[in-house]
Amino acid sequence: MHEPFVKKSILPGFSLSLGFTIFYLSLIVLIPLSMLFLKTSSLSFKGFIDVIMDPRTLAAYRLSFGTAFVSAGINAVFGFIVAWVLVRYTFPGKRIVDALVDFPLALPTAVAGIALTELYTPTGWVGQYLNVWGIKGAFSPFGITIALTFIGLPFVVRTIQPVLEDLDPQIEEAAASLGANRWQTLTTVILPIIFPALLAGVTLALARAIGEYGSVIFIAGNMPMKTEIAPLLIMTKLEQYDYAGATAIAIGMLLISFLLLAMANFFQWKTSKNLGKA
Fold it and tell me: Which of 63, 136, 162, 183 lies at a C-alpha separation of 20 to 30 Å from 45?
């Protein structure tokens, strides 16, 4: 006999819960996204290609996705270090440091953008020293990367932290007793275990960075072809009442983001599956 498509559960209310889930996701996610495609349908296929392949659009895509990848990579390294320190060590002010990790989430993005801009302008506290070395902090791709790193850090730390808390320190002690040095313990014991969580956190930070607007527009300078991010270009199109062009750019971002998230989820699933076999 064939197995049932849906396994029965001892918990009641599955049909009602599933119906509510589908309704809620449709209302919050699917219907708004479908409106993007509906609005873009007013463009011909050639018109759609012309919009997303416009040099200004391509420059905005390169800047948005490029800085998002760089910031996610930075947070992958330093987010792991922060989570490791918070889990493995006890020190004065630990609770304050732990609370500061969530500060970028609680701070309004516009406030974060203004603060970072003041800090990294050529006359700012940090920017004046960067300027001596010929490094332009604010109003440059470097400044955008700083802003995206700032807002993405909590996603990496908070995703890795529970996994590290569940990781028994005796595993590291056992590796050391078998002759592994610290680098070997990190790369062959710790990282394979936390990699799915690390990848999930980096994916969340990347997704947030790609669509970030408030904290970036102040520090970016918003110069077309140089420091103009894709979300700002969408807003510019909307202000010009070019709704079809704005939705076309948004769909381009949506498709690229969906592809990146699908790849990240595949690698995360593959890694988790391999760990399960090990």
Answer: 63
